[in-house]
Write a structure and sequence with these properties.
By secondary structure, the chain is mainly α. The protein contains 14 helices and no strands. It folds into 2 domains: 2-56, no CATH class; 73-237, MetI-like (MetI-like fold), CATH 1.10.3720.10. The protein has helices at 2-41, 45-50, 63-71, 74-105, 111-120, 130-139, 146-150, 157-169, 173-180, 185-193, 198-214, 217-222, 231-237, 248-281. InterPro entries: MetI-like (IPR000515), MetI-like_sf (IPR035906).
């Protein structure tokens, strides 16, 4: 018996090490392109035009980042992305939380049918409705406005589904106890239940923020004025002939600069994602 237990422990240890080695290998594969982009951003454009392999050899320079600071539209694009991503995230959190609470806690005619119709939104690609949406926003004169960039993303069927399931997981006895203290429906939602859904809200908010930050399709269609470009559209507009017009190093410096806010978001909110995933697993 002791021999079997020892061999089993050795087998598990070997399996854990194998998984760890595979994880490290995959992490290296994912990190290499990012390190390569950082390296390209630290080389002069003239060197990269001759040989991109020069990224592996000194000297390196910050001239591309200096050029961004003194003469680039990236700060305007960065501001637009921050406004659009933050506004869209807040809108999704508010609407999804209210809808999730309604579907999970309230009884009203056609609730299940409406919920199914909302979930149908997960199966409809954005490209399928782009013409109708473009015409609608054009009639409302919302193109090249922050509202026009944010409003489509606030329709979030996944957010409604996530918050509905999270509210359903909260025992109804909590609502009943609050009602005994003469709490209104809104007070129960705002003061009692909503704070209990913070992990789910943090996860939804981060995913929405990242989706809005990296979105290219709708900002390209709606934000045709250069002053309303988001980072994705603005950086893409500088890419011509393999970025030879602006310089590959300059382009990579813009990409690195644009990724910093996303990195900050991950650093501050990663624990909420882990908590939400572990809560769902249990």
């Amino acid at each position: 018996m002791t021999t079997q237990l020892a061999s089993g422990a050795v087998g598990r240890a070997f399996g854990d090490r194998l998984i760890l080695a595979a994880t490290i290998a995959l992490a290296i594969v994912m990190v290499i392109p990012m390190l390569w982009a950082v390296g390209l951003s630290l080389k002069t454009n003239q060197e990269l035009l001759v040989d991109t392999q020069s990224v592996l050899k000194a000297p390196w320079t910050l001239i591309n980042y200096y050029d961004i600071l003194i003469g680039s539209g990236v700060f305007r694009w960065l501001l637009n992305s921050i406004i659009v991503s933050t506004g869209m995230s807040l809108g999704v959190l508010v609407l999804s939380s209210l809808a999730g609470y309604g579907f999970a806690r309230l009884e009203f005619p056609g609730r299940n049918v409406i919920f199914v119709l909302v979930l149908f939104g997960l199966a409809i690609p954005e490209q399928a409705v782009i013409l109708v949406r473009h015409q609608l926003f054009s009639d409302l004169d919302l193109h090249n406005t922050y509202a026009g960039l944010m409003l489509p993303g606030m329709s979030a069927p996944f957010g409604v589904f996530l918050m509905t399931q999270y509210f359903k997981a909260i025992p109804t006895e909590i609502d009943e106890a609050a009602m005994l203290d003469n709490a209104s429906r809104f007070k129960i939602f705002w003061r009692v239940l909503l704070p209990m859904t913070l992990p789910a809200q943090a996860t939804l908010g981060i995913f929405t923020f990242l989706h809005a930050w990296n979105d290219y399709w709708w900002p390209m269609v709606s934000g045709t004025n250069q002053q309303m470009y988001t980072l994705t559209v603005g950086i893409a507009s500088t890419q011509q002939n393999f970025a030879e017009s602006a310089g590959l190093g300059y382009l990579m410096a813009q990409a690195v600069f644009a990724s910093l806010p996303v990195l900050i978001v991950y650093m501050f909110f990663q624990k909420y994602i882990v908590r939400a995933v572990s809560g769902a697993a249990t």
